[in-house]
Design a protein that fits this description.
Blueprint lengths: L1 H61 L30 E2 L2 E2 L6 E2 L6 E7 L6 E9 L7 E6 L2 E11 L8 E9 L9 E5 L11 E4 L12 E10 L6 H14 L3 E6 L4 H13 L2 E5 L26 H11 L4 E7 L3 E5 L5 H12 L3 E11 L27 E2 L10 E5 L4 E5 L2 E5 L2 E4 L5 E7 L12 E2 L7 H15 L1 H6 L1
Parallel strand pairs: 4-10, 11-12, 11-14, 12-13, 16-21, 16-22
Antiparallel strand pairs: 1-2, 3-4, 4-5, 5-8, 6-7, 6-9, 7-8, 9-10, 14-18, 15-22, 16-18, 17-23, 19-20
Helix pairs in contact: 2-6, 3-6
């Protein structure tokens, strides 16, 4: 009996010892696991802090844009995927911060995207910063000026343009008062107190140098094309339109490019090398879920038509002192004079009639691209494999409705304009007139607009053919130098 009790006691002691040993091991493992988790969390926090501080610089300058199609609303605004290149990964610095050249810079801590900064023609004490803002956001915008290597700050006033078509984002002007002691500002950054002014990107302040006198501009006409998107591949119409612009007297075409096909890029590169085309990177899809149309109910998105309004306003200010006139067109639109051969002759005549302080509206006429001219006169063999619309094959236009305001596009002296919209002006201290249709009209070669018409209702209008003798060889020459050989080989 005593032996059994002793044996049982010994076993209990052994059991307790085993339990203590296991408990020590388990405690050691728990401590090790806890320290491991703490180390991982601290490492992750350091990585995220570094990533947030360098997100904008890295993503915008390496082209490795990441994210999704959701609109961001704070300092974590993340670029979406794009196949387009950005500016150099090593931009110059001003006042200790990187200086951007291309438009579209997100502001940390808010949903604002800054397009570009211009010394305001209408108030020389302010800089006008063309921007895209989230209209319902009560954003507190501040301006950081760089003047001779020194920083100065002022608070911005935000004016949202009234044409936003009901989208949550809209074009806006931020007015930054130039601070005392900053007599020659060269660069500006926009920030919010929430995001701070440490990790900012400066943009150059344009139009700050002495400007040329009247009629002493590098160009007579600049065409603003906004915006090229959707992997644009309408190569033939692009070349035909640009060559028509040249015949009409245009010396500069500004294209705000979001995306295009490789063939289109070859054509753009060629025109850029000649000095005719300026390609302005427009990577708005990196930041905002844009709409492909003008009505939110039909074309969902947060911003009208790839930011077209912001691009048009930027183009007016960008070329304000470089060109006598700007024309705000799409790539499928050509304003044709009917009583003159060139825009110079046409505008000289119009200004003699209405005066120089006038904006001129040219009514749009739709030429349905599904209705071809039957003779095949311009169904050329050398163009059959070129992607895109052949404008010379579409010479039947829809009759415009009487008694309604039909669409139009404008040619105007940019120094008269404060704000523009798709069709005309929003803030214009002068007057505009609708040019008579027998004097000039806009040829818009596109899909049909009026579905109530039969083909017999269309009007034959082959005025464009009067330019064909020079247009056709000019188009062929460009295609030979860019994509014609590659297309034939394919």
């Amino acid at each position: 009996k005593y032996l059994q009790v002793a044996t049982d006691r010994h076993r209990r002691v052994q059991l307790v010892d085993m339990m203590l040993d296991k408990g020590s091991t388990s405690l050691y493992k728990r401590k090790y696991l806890l320290w491991s988790i703490c180390f991982i969390i601290i490492t992750l926090i350091i990585f995220l802090a570094y990533r947030n501080n360098n997100m904008e610089f890295y993503m915008l300058n390496t082209g490795e844009l990441q994210g999704n199609n959701n609109t961001k609303g704070n300092d974590d605004i993340a670029p979406m995927k794009t196949n387009q290149a950005t500016e150099s990964p090593n931009p110059p610095e001003v006042c200790g911060a990187p200086a951007k050249i291309d438009p579209l810079v997100p502001v940390r801590g808010m949903k604002t995207i800054v397009v570009a900064a211009y010394l305001d023609k209408w108030d020389s004490e302010h800089v006008r910063v063309i921007s895209i803002v989230y209209r319902s956001e009560m954003a507190d915008h501040h301006c950081l000026f760089c003047c001779g290597g020194r920083k100065f700050t002022s608070r911005a006033q935000c004016h949202i343009h009234r044409d936003h078509f009901g989208f949550v984002y809209g074009t806006a002007d931020l007015f930054c008062k130039i601070p005392q002691g900053c007599s020659l500002p060269t660069h500006l950054a926009v920030y919010t107190p929430l995001g701070g002014d440490q990790d900012v990107s400066f943009l150059p302040i344009h139009n700050s140098q002495p400007q040329p006198q009247t009629n002493a501009f590098p160009y007579d006409f600049t065409v603003c094309i906004s915006t090229m998107f959707g992997n644009f591949n309408n190569v033939l119409q692009l070349v035909q339109t640009i060559e028509m612009y040249k015949l009409l007297g245009v010396q500069k075409v500004a294209i705000y490019k979001n995306s295009c096909s490789p063939d289109t890029q070859r054509v753009l590169d060629f025109y850029h090398s000649t000095g005719l085309v300026d390609i302005i990177p427009w990577l708005i899809t990196s930041y905002i879920n844009v709409s492909g149309g003008w009505r939110p109910s039909e074309f969902p998105g947060d911003l009208h038509y790839y930011g077209q309004l912001a691009a048009l306003n930027d183009c007016v200010y960008r070329y304000m002192y470089k060109t006598k006139y700007v024309a705000l067109n799409d790539i499928d639109e050509i304003i044709l004079p009917l009583k003159h051969r060139t825009w110079n002759e046409m505008m000289e005549d119009l200004e003699q009639q209405y005066g120089p302080h006038t904006g001129f509206e040219f009514e749009s006429h739709v030429f349905p691209q599904n209705i071809n001219e039957k003779s095949g006169r311009f169904h050329l063999q050398e163009w059959k494999d070129i992607p895109g619309v052949n404008v010379l094959e579409h010479i039947y236009r829809e009759p415009n409705k009487a008694g309604v305001l039909n669409a139009f596009k404008v040619i105007v002296n940019p120094r008269l304009v404060q704000e523009v919209t798709v069709h005309g002006f929003l803030n214009f201290d002068y007057h505009s007139i609708r040019v008579q249709q027998n004097f000039a009209r806009m040829y818009h070669i596109r899909r049909p607009q009026r579905h109530d018409l039969h083909q017999s209702d269309l009007i034959r209008d082959d005025h464009l053919w009067s330019y064909s003798e020079k247009l056709v060889p000019a188009v062929n020459e460009v295609l030979k130098k860019t994509i014609l050989g590659r297309v034939k080989a394919t």
